[in-house]
Write a structure and sequence with these properties.
With 170 residues, the chain is mostly helical. 54% of the residues lie in helices and 0% in strands. The protein has 9 helices and no strands. The protein has helices spanning 2-21, 29-36, 40-51, 55-73, 78-84, 90-101, 105-110, 126-129, 166-169. α2 (29-36) crosses α3 (40-51). The longest helix is centred in the first third of the chain and has 20 residues, at 2-21. The chain is globular and about 55 Å long.
């Protein structure tokens, strides 16, 4: 199982790298399966088993997350952004965007509001599995501790089922 956690993490990094760099490489199941050296069926089955979602849905949500940032932060046309992230038309992009975020890209650009982004999944945690990485025990830096007194406050409970762990949530 640990091997497949690493493989899925490699897939996630490859997906984000291809989307961010816009290398023009085809981001398909066959391309990703070829990177790992397994069949398309086996990769998609294991990805769904570990992440809880289909690979094509994850791809679409990650592309939409990057596109949302471009819509918010740039003045590029919506069609240009849609084509940049691999959508076939303005209509297909608008339909997917509205399904994911409940608002059209044009409305979001006019009045940005908080939306739930599909963040990169992290199924492989080298610290928890103790198979690599630099933990606090291996660190060469000094750990400084101090205490701060804060005034009393009320506890706010926030429930988020999409986060993988504590740090992913925050």
């Amino acid at each position: 199982m640990r091997e497949w956690l690493k493989n899925v993490q490699e897939l996630v990094e490859e997906i984000d790298g291809c989307i961010q760099d816009q290398k023009g490489e085809p981001l398909t199941l066959s391309y990703l399966a070829g990177k790992l050296g397994y069949s398309e069926y086996h990769v998609s089955k294991k990805f769904r088993e570990i992440s809880g979602m289909r690979l094509r849905d994850y791809l679409r949500y990650r592309k939409l997350a990057f596109a949302l940032k471009d819509i918010r932060d740039t003045e590029d046309g919506i069609l240009d952004i849609a084509l940049r992230y691999g959508f076939s038309s303005h209509e297909a992009f608008t339909r997917a965007f509205q399904e994911a975020y409940g608002v059209s890209p044009r409305e979001y650009r006019r009045a940005p509001r908080p939306v739930v982004l599909r963040t990169a999944i992290k199924p492989f945690d080298c610290y928890l599995l103790q198979c690599g990485g630099i933990g606090m025990a291996d660190s060469t830096q000094d750990v400084k501790t101090y205490f701060v007194t804060i005034p009393r406050h009320k506890f706010l409970h926030i429930r988020n089922y999409e986060s993988v762990g504590y740090f992913d949530f925050w």
